[in-house]
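Side project, low priority. Logging it here so it doesn't get lost.
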Amino acid sequence: MLDLTRVLAGPLCTMTLGDLGAQVIKVERPGSGDETRGWGPPFDSEGRSAYYLSVNRNKLGVALDLDLEPDRDLLMGLANEADVVVENFRAGTLERRGIVPEALLRSSPRLVWCRLTGFGADSRRPGYDVVVQAEAGWMAITGEPDGEPMKIGVALADVCAGKDAAIAILGCLASRAGLGDAERMLTISLAHSATAALVNVAQNALVTGEEPRRWGNAHPNLVPYQLFEAADRPFILAVGNDAQWLGCCRALERLDLGNDPRLQRNAGRVEHRAELVHTLGQTLRTRGAADWLERLEGHGVPAGVVRRVSEALADVEADARTGVAPLAPGSVRLPPPGLDEHGPLVRARGWGAFEAL
C-alpha cells in the first residue's frame, strides 16, 4: 500500500490496514514531511510529535519531491506495483505533475485508488476536522443546552473518515476481480462521513422534521442516560431498556419509581425527564460513586465513573512511541518512521525494502 496522505484521516486509514498486515510505504515531502511532525508540543525524546506518532506506525518512510522527474518516476513505479494507493491531495495536484489515477488504474487492473477529501471529489476546500464538525451539524448538538456550540475533544470526523476509507478499501479488495477501473476509484469525504455519523440524531430530524438540539451529557431518546453527581464524584448512569430501569430502581432502593406507571416505559421517562432526573439526582447524592456502581453492576445496569485519560490508558496496551496497540488480528511491527528514514532502501529495492528489514 502506497500512503500519499498526511495529517490524520489518511494516515489513520493506512495505519489501520498496516496493523492488519499490509506493507505500507509512506511518502512525504522533503524537508518538512507530514505537517503533523510539527504539531506539538508534546514531542518525544527524538523530537517527533505525539500527534504524528499516533497514526503512523507499521510504515516505511520515504521523502519524494514530486516536482522532480526521478522522484515522480519512483512514485509511479511504486504505484504500478501496489495493490492500494491512498492520497488526500487537493483535486488536480497530482494530475498537474503527470500522476493521473485513472491512467494508473487502467495500467494496473489490481490497483485500488482511494482519495480522501474534505468536501467531495470536486471541492478544493481544505478538509480540516473542526470545520467539518461545524458544517456537519456536530457542534450544533454538542455542549450544554444553554451553552455555545462545542467541538468534540477528539478529531472524530477525521477518525470516522479514516475508518470508512479502510472499510471501503477492504471491500473493494475483496471484490476487485469483477470491478472496472472507475469502480476501483474510491472517494471518501470527511463531510459525508461526519454527516452519516449523526446516525440516530439525523434520523430524529428526518422523522420529526424538528431541529435536534444540544443535550449536554443527557440523551435525546433515553432517560436516565446521563451524568449524575454522587456524594464524592460524577458518574454516568446509562439505562438502555425497561428491564435495566427496574434494575436501576432496585439498586437505588427506589421501588416507588419502578412502580410508577408513568415511568415503566422509556417513552414515559423521556416525557417526564425533568422531574425524574431531579429525583434521581437527589437520591444519587446520598452515597459515593463506588457504592452506587457496585449496586448498579449487581443489577446489570450500565454505569461508570468519569476517568482521566491516563486512567483509561492503564487498561490497554499502549506505548509512547507506537500508541494504543490494536486488538488481534492486528499487530505492531514497526515504529513510526523518521522523515525519509527508509529512503535509501526504498529507492534501491522498491517494495522489496520490506524483505530487507
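Brief comment: The two ends are 17 Å apart (CA to CA).
Revisit when time allows.
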